[in-house]
């Protein structure tokens, strides 16, 4: 069982804390987990819209996101996380999400294995975490044939330690990690 865990927030705040707690639980359960921090990657490009993936079966843009795409392709499970920025996922998340286009063939069938388990983590200062988590789950389910196993949404009041200080949220992180 291998899991690719994605942190896209530039801050080492709530989503960072929750994803790392999930990763620790996965490791404790003997699972193979790789954690990727998109913001730490210097050479990260969005989808170029070249459609070469529709002929080649994978993304031809080679940059720091390439190992992330490979890890997601090869994983049995995925953890996706983002803060809410202006009602949407943050830019770092959107860059990666657009690159997931390479997992779709020309006829929109998927070229990655179906049935990967996916857990989604979203943090918002005041509103929108639930809606965004549902949207991301919908994309992963409908386009990429993943199986959502649960999400964690936090309304933080912009406190970067909100999740860390909540026993309930930290317990939920472990609970969902155990579902992989
Ligand atoms: C550029 C920017 C835009 C934001 N936009 C929103 C927003 O539209 N709605 C909201 O509730 N919070 C917004 N926030 C607050 C973050 O979602 C909030 O602080 C969140 O807890 C950050 O998650 P993190 O601790 O995982 O980085 C914004 C923060 C930034 C920096």
Structural summary, described in words:
With 180 residues, the protein is α/β, with parallel strands linked by helices. The chain has a single domain, classed as 3-Layer(aba) Sandwich (Rossmann fold). The chain is built from six helices and six strands; from the N terminus they run E-H-E-H-H-E-E-H-E-H-E-H. Strands 1, 2, 3, 4, 5 and 6 form a six-stranded mixed beta sheet that branches. The radius of gyration is 15 Å and the shape is globular. Bound molecules: flavin mononucleotide. Residues 9, 11, 13-16, 83-87, 123-128, 156, 158, 160 line the site of flavin mononucleotide (FMN).
What is the element layout, followed by pairings?
Layout: E1 2-7, H1 14-28, E2 32-37, H2 53-56, H3 66-74, E3 77-85, E4 88-89, H4 91-99, E5 117-124, H5 129-142, E6 147-155, H6 167-177
Parallel strand pairs: 1-2, 1-3, 3-5, 5-6
Antiparallel strand pairs: 3-4
Helix pairs in contact: 1-6
């Amino acid at each position: 069982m291998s899991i690719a865990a994605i942190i896209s927030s530039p801050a080492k705040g709530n989503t960072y804390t929750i994803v790392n707690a999930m990763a620790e639980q996965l490791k404790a359960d003997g699972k193979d987990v790789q954690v990727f921090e998109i913001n730490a990657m210097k050479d990260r490009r969005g989808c170029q819209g070249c459609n070469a993936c529709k002929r080649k079966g994978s993304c031809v843009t080679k940059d720091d996101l390439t190992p992330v795409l490979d890890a997601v392709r090869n994983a049995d499970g995925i953890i996706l996380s983002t803060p809410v920025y202006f009602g949407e996922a943050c830019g770092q998340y959107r860059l990666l999400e657009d690159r997931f286009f390479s997992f779709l063939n020309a006829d929109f069938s998927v070229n990655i294995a179906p049935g990967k388990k996916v857990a989604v983590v979203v943090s918002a200062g005041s509103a929108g975490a639930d809606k965004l988590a549902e949207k991301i789950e919908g994309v992963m389910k409908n386009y990429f044939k993943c199986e959502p196993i649960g999400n964690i949404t936090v309304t933080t009041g912009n406190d970067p330690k909100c999740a860390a200080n909540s026993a309930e949220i930290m317990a939920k992180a472990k609970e969902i990690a155990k579902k992989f």
